Amino acid sequence: MGYTVQGFKASAVAAGLKNKGGLDLALIHAENPATAAGVFTTNLVKAAPVILSMEHIRDGKARAIIANAGNANACTGLQGMQDAQQTAKSVSKRLAISPQEVLVASTGVIGETLNMNALEKSLVPLVASLSPDGFEDAAKAIMTTDSFPKMARFEGVAGGRPFKIAGMAKGAGMIMPNMATMLSFILTDISIEVAVLQDALREGVEKTFNRTSVDGDTSTNDTVFALASGMAGNGALSQGDHAEFLSGLTRVMDDLAQMIARDGEGATKFVTVELRGAVSAPEALAGARTVANSALVKTAVYGRDPNWGRIMAALGRAGISMEESLTDIWIDDVQIVKGGLGCGKEAEKRAGERMEKDAFVIIIELHLGGFSEKMYTCDFSHEYVSINADYRT
Q: Is 181 among the residues known to form the active site?
């Protein structure tokens, strides 16, 4: 099962927009107007392509996504907006569609204007190389500090017909979306109403990408697009069909979210923080997020040190209901805190052994209610500091 989806072609070229070379300009083209939905950054500082795409997607239709890496086109003022508009206009001309049908996304360095000359020159080979098999190259082209392209897929049946979902994402640093930089483009051939697609995308993002944190920073450019070609030929979707599609969409995004956390800049460990027994879902999420974002917890993870005091301290400042004397903590299956007290050196030794693995779970039980949430995160390593210290050089 490949990543081809009926009704879509993709391509990528090296336009010279990234300092270190390689593919850096991606194009996705829908053969016919596709149903389109989007979720964008909550950062008040929004990049020009985000502002433009929020406007273009309002009518729920799109024919193309153009995305570049190496330059965020954020904090670039009027020039940045004009460049985003010109990008959409130039792509639309090459594809013989309306500029309004072009969605634009960018990722990279903030505060520098786009090299529009290089971008414009690259559109001819970019359009010429469009192919149903171009998905993987497009996924590679949106990478910045990522170490691998992130792709996921799903097949299901709805409205009496089989359908496919294929998704790509990039992100390794500046990751704490509240819809990080995080870009994700999801394609499906299902026939679906725009309101249903938008609701499904928003719900899926909330359950997946918004449960991911590499470093606690929210980008200016976070963007998730979903395009549906309708070429699966399905009939009207029943309530069960809606559930099947949402399940598939969420699975694709969850796979991508986990890849982003696993590929956190300099990361050596993938950690799931599960918080149980909270008095409400928002408090469960707030507690899990605070622990996942704690630099002290993340450095302890890097050191394979089950320093439970740092977890307790993070919980205590999370602004949630908790009672120290009721709180239990595990590393995988090893309990290290019972009733707010440490379980001793032997337990810590066994927990440290669990932390040698590439992936493990920190489980927190508050014993106050019936609500649970999880967050995906990773450790902070020396490499994370090096990558970000040298990012613009």
A: yes
Specify the DSSP element, H or E, that contains 43.
none
- Find tokens 């950062």 and name the residue: 43
**CATH superfamily, with its number, for domain 8-262:** L-amino peptidase D-ALA esterase/amidase (3.60.70.12)
pLDDT tens column, 215-272: 555 678 889 999 999 999 999 999 999 999 999 999 999 999 999 888 876 788 999 9
pTM here?
0.88
- CATH number 3.40.640.10 is the correct assignment for the domain at 270-389: no
Residue type, 184: S
Radius of gyration of the chain (CA): 22
Which band of pLDDT confidence, cut at 50, 70 and 90, is reported for residue 388? low
Both tokens of 107, joined, read 């990722």
Helix (H) or strand (E) holding 387: helix 382-389
Q: Do 110 and 74 contact (CB within 8 A), yes or no?
A: yes
Catalytic residue, from 181, 188, 220, 327: name it: 181
